[in-house]
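Input.
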Amino acid sequence: MADIEPQDQDRQGGKAQRSQDAEPGRPQGAGKDRQPHEDEQEHRQEQRRKRALPYVRIAMVVILIALIGGGLWYWQATKDLEDTDDAYTDGRAVTIAPRVTGQVVSLDVNDNQFVHRGDPLIHIDPRDYQAALERAQGQLDAAKGQLLASTHGFDVARVNFPARLAAAQAQVKEAQANLFKAQTDYRRQQNLPRAATTGQQVDYATAALRSAEAQLAQAEASATEAAPVKPNVEQIGAQVKQLQGTVEQADADVRTAQLNLGYCIVRAPQDGWITKRNVEQGNYVTPGQQIFSIVSPEVWITANFKENQINRMRPGQPVAISVDAYPGLKLKGHVDSVQLGSGSKFTAFPPENATGNFVKIVQRVPVKIVIDSGLDPNIPLPLGISVEPTVTLK
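Output.
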């Protein structure tokens, strides 16, 4: 023990001396205040830092490798994917408008109600159109009666006109025969001696001759009047055709009146949901006035991709669709078609890049995406809500 203690004192003296040598500007006697265990703690911390340095370097290398690997994995996983948040649900919305004027006497549907094709939507007062139908039916019946009478007259005319001509020609021959007899009698009376005849007989022969001449002229006139048989028959035929046209016109009026009467019941042209109802019972409606819209059950996605995203996009490629309104609803579909024109091309005022200063703007091209599966019949999917489609470009 006596040998060890002087050595400890020498170590302590040496440390104090080194401390004073290491700090030349320190006042004399300051080293005496420093505790020996503080130097040991600094030494141990230095040793720990030296031992921890390789592990820190290894950790940094591992983190760097992980970042590079994660970046490569993300690039590999997303290089064949294209997505956009400029997309929404789309479908067909049919505008319903009446085709006749009148007062709504019955309203058969309500807002957001599902209807089938042919279901009645509203009833318009039909009394005016019923009266118009009856009036048109009466005119049709009258025209048919006139046509029937004219048709019978045409059949009779085809027989009567040739017979009338034949009778006139026969009368001409008879008149010619009577004229020949009268001429013969007249010449005989003129050739007889005055003692063999009387003045009265001569007068009778002269009168008979003049009467026969008049009868012949009358018969020839009748024959001339009856001669145009074909034109007379065709004239009656033309009257028949005219009446046939009248009947057809009256029949068209009847069918128009029937249509107008049928239009008093406005029916659904297709299956769908009633939206934008703009009519109430008792309203007075006119043709072309929008009273309903019907949204068809068929829904698809219209996605506006940037023009640099459609390079590898083709019809048939699978699409995963998320709906903003229903985070739990996951839809699957496929690319149906790519519109042959950017969205700005079909606006009311398309840009004229050939005039003024040109600034290049990335255009968006509408892509139609058909939904294949994932729809829930209990969850409505309104038109125009936001979705996010992701197309797999394989």
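The chain is about 50% helix and 20% strand.
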